[in-house]
């Protein structure tokens, strides 16, 4: 299994030009995950991790693509027409540096992509590839003489030789204390100190066989998400709202997640219209609806930093429903952000349901809500490690919610069994703080 990053550990991000992915490794070369690039970003070369974004320069279309660290495309920045063979990219405090392998120049842009100026490389640095910046110094690797050239601003200072096996260098990255150079032929990452002394190397994943750029990011150990409290309630009085008292603790980085379940002959009425906690609106994650003539509607909602103490969860449906149910799950040490992933599923017949989700962060928690119609009895969790947090029945309807700790980011599935004839399921993944 892939380990959770340790405190103040550098992660290395390596582009691959064949499968248009970014491979993420720890310093020992253990694969931490993969991210797919945008379809248009088909010749990704240099990569930089800066300002909580991933920046990838494309060799062919002269564009820098900007992504979230989870791999979601944000925007693209067009380069100068003369910057026609962009190989490396580095982000400084207020500018973007792009090295060009045809005219031996470094092009400077502001952080929004507006062109600023250029500066020239040393005459011997005539096949530049990657660029990295640290402490005002630029480190540019050369593919012909297998050297790293060091500049202070636009002033050339010195150069040093790469390891004898690092003969086809492409990308370069630094965290200020070490330098890494990726080799496109032997598919290894070579580590050096800041003065060029070779330290170690590791092999890339087998799928990362056309490596190009490399970037680095420093992560600290995430806090462990911890369960705080749960609550639940139900009514079969034909109501359009349900109130559930819930007690939230005083710990840091709190999130309250509420699942709603309703059964009714109208699929419009059983859709949840709003949820509040202590009068504050909660944010909807998604909703699933199962059934053909009678319906089970299930939704999931969350609120960041909910007020501590005992306050009311108020669930409102679009109309009066036959059976109304709901439950709350509070956690802490969770990142104060929207869920990093979510999914839904509905089945109109059967006695079990399982829904997949792909977490993006080591140590994430998946929280779900499930509902069934036609049989008022409890649920049974099906996934190893899945913890049932509430399980409620209202006449012929049932609802439940639970949590699953996912140590290593990746695909998982949560499942429930219950003697039902319609099942709906919503789940979301929350990252640790």
Fold blueprint:
Layout: E1 9-16, E2 21-25, E3 31-36, E4 44-50, E5 53-58, E6 63-68, E7 73-78, E8 86-91, E9 95-100, E10 105-110, E11 115-120, E12 128-134, E13 137-142, E14 147-152, E15 155-161, E16 169-174, E17 178-183, E18 188-193, E19 198-203, E20 211-219, E21 226-235, E22 241-248, E23 255-264, E24 272-277, E25 280-281, E26 283-291, E27 295-304, E28 309-317, E29 323-332, E30 341-347, E31 352-358, E32 364-373, E33 380-381, E34 387-394, E35 397-406, E36 411-417, E37 422-430
Antiparallel strand pairs: 1-2, 1-20, 2-3, 4-5, 5-6, 6-7, 8-9, 9-10, 10-11, 12-13, 13-14, 14-15, 16-17, 17-18, 18-19, 21-29, 22-28, 23-27, 23-29, 24-25, 24-28, 26-27, 30-37, 31-36, 32-35, 32-37, 33-36, 34-35
Distance between the termini: 22 Å
Radius of gyration: 26 Å
Strand content: over 45%
DSSP E strands, number: 37
Shape descriptor: elongated
Roughly what is the average pLDDT, rounded to an integer?
Answer: 93
In the sheet with the most strands, the strands line up as 21-29-23-27-26
Approximate helicity band: under 10%
Any low-confidence stretches, pLDDT <50, length ≥5? 1-7
Alpha-beta classification: mainly beta
Major sheet details: 5 strands, antiparallel
Number of helices: 0
């Amino acid at each position: 299994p892939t380990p959770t990053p340790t405190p103040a550990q550098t992660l290395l991000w390596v582009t691959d030009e064949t499968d248009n992915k970014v491979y993420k490794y720890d310093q020992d070369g253990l694969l931490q995950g993969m991210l797919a690039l945008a379809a248009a970003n088909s010749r990704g070369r240099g990569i930089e991790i800066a300002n909580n974004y991933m920046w990838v320069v494309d060799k062919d279309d002269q564009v820098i693509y900007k992504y979230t660290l989870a791999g979601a495309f944000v925007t693209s920045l067009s380069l100068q027409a003369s910057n026609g063979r962009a190989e490396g990219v580095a982000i400084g405090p207020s500018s973007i540096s792009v090295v060009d392998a045809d005219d031996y120049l470094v092009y400077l842009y502001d952080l929004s992509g507006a062109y600023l100026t250029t500066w020239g490389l040393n005459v011997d640095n005539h096949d530049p590839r990657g660029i990295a910046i640290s402490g005002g110094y630029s480190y540019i690797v050369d593919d012909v003489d297998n050297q790293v050239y060091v500049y202070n601003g636009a002033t050339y200072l010195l150069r040093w030789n790469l390891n004898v096996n690092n003969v086809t260098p492409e990308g370069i990255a630094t965290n200020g204390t070490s330098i890494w150079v990726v080799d496109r032929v032997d598919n290894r990452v070579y580590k050096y100190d800041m003065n060029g002394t070779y330290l170690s190397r590791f092999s890339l994943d087998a799928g990362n066989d056309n490596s190009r750029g490399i970037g680095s990011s420093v992560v600290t150990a995430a806090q462990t998400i911890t369960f705080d409290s749960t609550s639940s309630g139900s009514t079969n009085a034909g109501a359009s709202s349900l109130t559930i008292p819930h007690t939230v603790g005083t710990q840091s980085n709190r999130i309250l997640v509420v699942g709603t379940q309703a059964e009714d002959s109208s699929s419009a009425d059983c859709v949840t219209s709003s949820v509040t906690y202590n009068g504050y609106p909660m944010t909807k994650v998604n909703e699933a609806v199962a059934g053909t003539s009678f319906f089970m509607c299930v939704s999931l909602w969350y609120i960041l930093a909910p007020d501590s103490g005992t306050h009311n969860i108020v669930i409102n449906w679009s109309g009066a429903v036959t059976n109304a149910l709901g439950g709350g799950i509070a956690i802490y040490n969770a990142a104060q952000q929207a869920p990093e992933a979510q999914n839904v599923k509905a089945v109109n017949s059967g006695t079990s349901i399982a829904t997949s989700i792909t977490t993006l962060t080591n140590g994430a928690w998946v929280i779900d809500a499930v509902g069934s119609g036609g049989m008022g009895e409890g649920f049974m969790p099906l996934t190893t490690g899945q913890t049932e947090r509430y399980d409620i029945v209202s006449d012929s309807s049932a609802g439940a919610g639970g949590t699953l700790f996912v140590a290593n980011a990746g695909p998982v599935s949560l499942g429930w069994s219950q003697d039902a004839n319609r099942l709906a399921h919503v789940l979301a993944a929350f990252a640790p703080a």
